[in-house]
# Entry
Amino acid sequence: MRRKMVAGNWKMHGSLQANRALLGELVAAPRPDCELAVCVPFVGFGVGLLLALLAGALQFQSLYALGAVAVVYGIGQVVESSWLTPRLLGHHIGLHPLLVIFLLLAFGSLFGFIGVLLALPAGALLLVLARHALAWYRSSALFLGS
# Structure
């Protein structure tokens, strides 16, 4: 592990190494693909914020308006990413919104960018398997008591 990192990054890389150690991998340094997966979601937010601030600066030409544009954009981004997307995705594939957030965090932490891409399909598959196992158990002699 690199020792010259700032405290937040050092902690983040430490948790990535702990996750890889749980998977049985030998880790000498943080993987670049995990660092990229951590940065990618912020790129869209940053580019959108810059474009919104540019449009606000050209239209309103005051610092108060730029602050208002940044606050409105930030609130919209938080509502979209923490409430709207999990509800829409969870309802569409049959997963609870909290489970959607957990799957994205867990798979992203364990498997990086590929884990984020595969989190929801894998979660839906696990949900189907759990429902079939529960139906099988409820129809079994053990559950019925006979």
